[in-house]
Amino acid sequence: MSDVQAMAPGLHMSGSAYIGQVMIFEDLTLQIAPGGWHCLLGASGVGKSTVLRLFAGLNEGVEFDGTLLASDGLPFINRVTFMAQNDLLLPWLSARENVLLGARLRGQLINHLEADTVLEQVGLADHRLKNPSQLSGGQRQRVALARTLIEERPIVLLDEPFSALDAKTRSQMQELAVDLLKDKTVLLVTHDPAEAARLGQAISIMSASNLENFAPPNGIIPRGLCDPEALSTQGRLLGILRGIE
Q: Could you give phi then psi for residue 159, rounded to 5 degrees?
């Protein structure tokens, strides 16, 4: 990876997004610090996934009137990896080959050992040769996570990456992702206040009408499962989402 690819810049978005005549969000301003985890929390339908897709350059059908910038002034191309809500696995490829899809499409050297290593890290070493139809929903999501982790891009966009996992596996994958994405600029979209409280070094709450920054708990991420400040933050975030705080 080149030095340009390796640097993790901050991100800036300001503007409005539309699909046809339907407004997705208006006059949104989002500032993301370099080299940390920024959690974008909110209810379904407020445009969180659209924010990710705009940064990823996957804005088909969406008209954006505004500014998208990296803090170093360099283009986003070849510096972004994106994990969508759906796993988007190719059904005719094995888990291993799905993890290696990006390298294959770019015509790069295929490293099966590297793919097997990251599949082992996400707990799928024994499933590496299985096709997606042979995997559970949670296992498929872990393959998609492995495909994201192996890319080693400085900007990482995650759209509900742990949503299909059981509670035990979710906490383990959160910890793994924090470890493997150290020093990357990570924008995580989530509906889960507990996830935002555990992983957010910055937290923004997006609603249909505005975006509000929320002070994260103290402490190094991932915060402990029983961390009192994280649990308190979780409750306050849920109260805001429910409109009772």
A: -110, 100
Angle at which helix 137-149 crosses helix 167-180, to 10 degrees, equals 10
Q: What is the pTM of this model?
A: 0.93
Looking up tokens 């059908």 gives: 61
Give the mean pLDDT of 35-51: 94
156, 127 contact by CB (below 8 A)? no
Contacts of 15 (CB under 8 A, 6+ apart): 27, 28, 64, 65, 66, 67, 68
Contact status, residue 32 vs residue 180, Cβ threshold 8 Å: no
156: tokens are 């990482």
Q: Give all strands of the β-sheet with 63-70 in edge-to-edge order.
A: 22-32, 11-19, 63-70
Structural domains present in the chain: 3-79+153-242 (3.40.50.300)
190 beta partners: 41
Distance between CA 193 and CA 97 in Å, rounded? 34
Give the pLDDT score at 1: 46
C-alpha triplet 62, 7, 155: angle, nearest 5°: 30
DSSP codes joined into one string, 43-110:
-TTSSHHHHHHHHHT--TT-EEEEEEEETTS---TTSEEEE-SS----TTS-HHHHHTHHHHHTTPPP
Q: Tell me the pairing of strands 11-19 and 22-32.
A: antiparallel
Q: Nearest-CA neighbor of 221 among 191, 184, 167, 166?
A: 184
pLDDT for the residue numbered 4: 43
pLDDT digit string, tens, across residues 157-201: 999 999 989 999 999 999 999 999 999 999 999 999 999 999 999
